[in-house]
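Structure in, sequence out. Go:
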C-alpha cells in the first residue's frame, strides 16, 4: 500500500530524479516544447508552472530562487525576461500535455509538453562559446 507516499519515483535515485526534472524544465524553457514519456511530462508540469509563477514576480529574490533550481543564468534570464512578461494575462495553466503514440522500442506512452502561448525567441540560450584558435589548435586543424 502507498499510504503517505507522495509523488512518483520513476525508478531513479533522488539525485537522478532531480537532475531529470531540472533538465526537462530547462529544455522546455529553451525550446518551448519537448517530447517525453507521459509520466515524466506529468512530473515536470507542476514544477514548470510554479517556476513561471515565481518568474512573473520579477524580483531579485525570485530570480535567485529560479537560479538555485537551474544553476544556469541564461535559462533564468530567458524565463524571467522573455517568457514571464508575456504570460502576465494568465493566472495558471502555462503548459499543455498532448498524448502521442507509443514508442516503438518499449511501447511506452509518449507525450508532448509545451508552453500554451508559443513565445520562442530566435536566440539560442545554450550554445557553447567558441574557443579561440591558438597555435596548438591551428596545427591540429591543419593536419
Amino acid at each position: 500500500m502507498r499510504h503517505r507516499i507522495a509523488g512518483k519515483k520513476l525508478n531513479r535515485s533522488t539525485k537522478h530524479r532531480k537532475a531529470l526534472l531540472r533538465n526537462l524544465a530547462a529544455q522546455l524553457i529553451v525550446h518551448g516544447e519537448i517530447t517525453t514519456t507521459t509520466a515524466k511530462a506529468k512530473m515536470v508540469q507542476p514544477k514548470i508552472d510554479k517556476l513561471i509563477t515565481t518568474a512573473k514576480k520579477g524580483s531579485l529574490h525570485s530570480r535567485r530562487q529560479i537560479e538555485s533550481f537551474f544553476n544556469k543564468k541564461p535559462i533564468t534570464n530567458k524565463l524571467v525576461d522573455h517568457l514571464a512578461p508575456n504570460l502576465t494575462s494568465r493566472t495558471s495553466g502555462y503548459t499543455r500535455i498532448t498524448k502521442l503514440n507509443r514508442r516503438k522500442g518499449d511501447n511506452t506512452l509518449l507525450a508532448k509538453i509545451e508552453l500554451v502561448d508559443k513565445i520562442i525567441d530566435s536566440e539560442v540560450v545554450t550554445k557553447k562559446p567558441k574557443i579561440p584558435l591558438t597555435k596548438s589548435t591551428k596545427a591540429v586543424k591543419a593536419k
